[in-house]
Amino acid sequence: MAIESLPQLDLIFSAMGDPTRRAILGRLALGEATVAELAQPFAFSQPTISRHLKVLERAGLIEGGRDAQRRPRRLRLEAMKQAADFIEPFRREWEQRFDNLANHLTTMKPGEE
Amino acid sequence: MPPAFQNATDCVIDRAAHTIRFVRDLDAPPRLVFDAWTKPEHISCWWDATGARLESCEMDVRPGGAFTFVSSGKPDHVFSGTYRTVEPPHRLVFDANGAEGRLILAANGEGTRMTVEIDCKTAELLDHYLEVGVTAGTSQTLANLETYLAGQEAAAA
Predict the structure, then answer these.
(1) What pTM value is reported for the model?
(2) Do A95 and B51 touch (CB under 8 A)?
(3) Mutate to test the interface with A, among B23, B46, B120, B132 (most CBs of A within 10 A)
(4) How many domains does chain A have?
(5) What does the alpha-carbon distance between residue B136 and residue B77 come to, in Å, rounded to a whole number?
(6) pLDDT in tens, A50-77
(7) CATH number of the domain residue B41 falls in
């Protein structure tokens, strides 16, 4: 991963550093959705969701769909992939370690000291 | 959407807090998980991502105490640092390689929700960590490929 691409990654990671925005990305992974549909599972108003959508758009993580009337949003897979590629090896190393831990825990006895 | 952590690790990079956070649900109570992190005979079995047992593991688990983990066959691959907070069975904080590691264990039904945070303190160190992670991950991938190819050759012979 080249250092030059870091400014875009800054935007991507800071956009993803929020639980509501990650939930929105999770919802959009299932298919495109309108602002009203995205706001529905949250106790937030549509303007609040719109503000989150702007942050995601600026990071290039989502874009407006073709239907101009409903303005559904959808994921931009290129940006998601850029972020995933950067994190992936690091995440994989730790996940492997935690898999080892989970396996090891099954060999430990509850009364063991 | 509720996050599903079963047998998967949730990984979040919080650039504002220059922290990498992993969350994982485990089928064992916090006390057992804490032991797995703080006893050399246990951590030796799982720390190395390759699955190899640690070559050596020294740990003085108390605030200010040092630890040194050496990976098998890689004497230069040493992970060492100092414990800062030791609060069994819920919290372990240590410094290593300029970052602060935080282990947080919360009871979750019969099991444990384990949160591991790597607080890099600066964005530069976070970037460096990710770069190193990329390098380590790449070499791990190559090692896996070698193992796989060796298995293929053995099968063909």
Answers:
(1) 0.65
(2) no
(3) B46
(4) 1
(5) 11
(6) 999 999 999 899 998 766 677 899 988 8
(7) 3.30.530.20
Contact criterion met (CB < 8 Å) for A87 and B22:
no
Instruction: Enter the tokens of residue B100.
Output: 């602060």
A112 lies in a domain? no
Question: Crossing angle of helices A6-16/A19-28, nearest 10°?
Answer: 100
Range of the domain at A96: 3-107
User: Could you give the CA distance from residue B74 to residue B79 in angstroms, rounded to a whole number?
Assistant: 11
Q: Are A55 and A35 in contact (CB under 8 A)?
A: no
Do B131 and A1 make contact, defined as CB atoms within 8 angstroms? Answer: yes
Structure tokens belonging to residue A70? 């409903």
* Domain CATH code at residue A83: 1.10.10.10
Residues 6 or more apart whose Cβ sits within 8 Å of residue B97: B79, B81
